[in-house]
Amino acid sequence: MTKREILEYLSGVRDEDLFSEARRVQKAASGDKVFLRGIVEFSNNCARNCAYCGLRRDNTGLERYDMTVSEIMGAVRPVYEDGIRTVVLQSGDNSSYTRKKICEIIENIKKQYKNIAVTLSLGERPLDDYKAFRDAGADRYLLRIETTNPRLYKKLHPGQSLKRRMDILKDLRKIKYQVGTGNIVGLPHQSIEDLAEDILFFKKFQPDMIGLGPFIAQKDALLKNEPGGAFYPTLRVLALARIVTKNAFLPITTALVTIAAEKQKHVALNSGADVIMPDYTPRKYSKNYKIYDNKSDITLPKAINIVKTAKRVLSLERADSLKNPPKQTGTIRY
Ligand code: SAM
C-alpha cells in the first residue's frame, strides 16, 4: 500500500472498505480466534516525563506503588489458572527493578507455570538487561514508538530520542525477542501525514505485534487540557496497521476500549484486531496505574463478552509470533 492510499484511507472516505478489508486480512492470518494476554501492571513509578502520561516522574499527585516479587507471582497465578498462556508484565521505566530482580521474576514464572509466554513492557533499559531477561526466559518485548515524527517525539518525551527507541527495537529483534511496537493516535500537533508515516514504519519493520490506541488526557499530565484521539481515526490506523503487517498480533487496547461506546467495542475487534488483554493487576494497585483518565477495567468476563458479541472465538493458546516463530527460550547464544 502506498503512502497516497494510506492518506486516502486515513481521511475516512472509504471506511467500510477499509474495515472489511482489514478483517479479511486478519481472518487469513488468525481466523476467528481472539487471543487473550493477561496483563499485570506491577509498578507505576517512572523515571520519564512523557507529556501525555499520568505516570510521569514530576506528577506528585499520584500514589506510587511497586509490587513485590511475591505480589507479582500472586497476580500471575490467576492468569494461569484462567487458562491464559501469555502474561504481560508492564511498568513505568523503573530501574529499582534491577536486572537481577526482573530475571528472578521471569525465572519464577517460567519455573512455576509450564508453557507460559512472558511479554515484558518495561520501557528503555541497557542492552545487557534485555539480553539477561531473554536468557532468563522472556519471550516478547513491547516498546511503542509512540510517534515516528522526530520533532513531535522530542517535544513529548523530554530527554529521550526517537533514534534510541528505534535502535532498541532493532536490538530486541537481533536478540530474538518477538517484538511489539505501536503508536498513539490523536496526539496534539500530530498530523494525518505523521500517522501515515507511522503506518509505513509498521510496514517496513514488520513487528510481531502492534499495540496502538488513542491519546486520552490525564488530569495530572502536561497535556491535561488537550482533546483526546477519537474512535474512528484510531480504528483507521488499526485497520491499516493490520493490512500492512498482515499477520502481526493486534489487540484492541485498553485505551481503545475506554473510548469506544458499548456498541463499538466488538466493531473495533472486527476491524482487524485479534487480541484482548484482560487486566490482572490487583485492584488496590490498578486504581493508581493512571496513565490516562477513566481507564476501562478489562476483566476476563468483559473480554469474553466482547468476543461473543463480535461472533468470534476465544483462544487460550500462547500464540507465538506468526512471523518469526520462536526458537526455544532459556539460555540464548548471541
Ligand atoms: N514505561 C513503558 C514504556 O515506556 O514503554 C511502559 C509503560 S507506558 C505507561 C505504556 C504505554 O502507555 C505507552 O507506550 C503509551 O503509549 C501509553 N500511554 C501513556 N499515557 C497515555 C495517554 N495519556 N493516552 C494514551 N496512551 C498513553
Describe it.
- The protein has helices at 3-10, 15-30, 69-81, 99-112, 127-136, 150-156, 162-174, 192-205, 231-245, 254-259, 265-269, 283-286, 300-309; strands spanning 33-36, 38-43, 86-91, 117-121, 140-142, 178-181, 184-185, 209-210, 213-214, 275-276, 313-315.
- Strands 2-3-4-5-6-8 form a six-stranded parallel sheet. Strands 10-1-11 form a three-stranded parallel sheet, with helices on one face.
- With 334 residues, it is an alpha/beta fold.
- The protein binds S-adenosylmethionine (SAM).
- S-adenosylmethionine is lined by residues 52-53, 55, 90, 92-93, 121, 123, 143-144, 146, 184, 213, 215-216, 218, 255, 291-292.
Question: How are the secondary structure elements laid out?
Answer:
Blueprint: H1 3-10, H2 15-30, E1 33-36, E2 38-43, H3 69-81, E3 86-91, H4 99-112, E4 117-121, H5 127-136, E5 140-142, H6 150-156, H7 162-174, E6 178-181, E7 184-185, H8 192-205, E8 209-210, E9 213-214, H9 231-245, H10 254-259, H11 265-269, E10 275-276, H12 283-286, H13 300-309, E11 313-315
The structure holds S-adenosylmethionine (SAM).
S-adenosylmethionine binds at residues 52-53, 55, 90, 92-93, 121, 123, 143-144, 146, 184, 213, 215-216, 218, 255, 291-292.
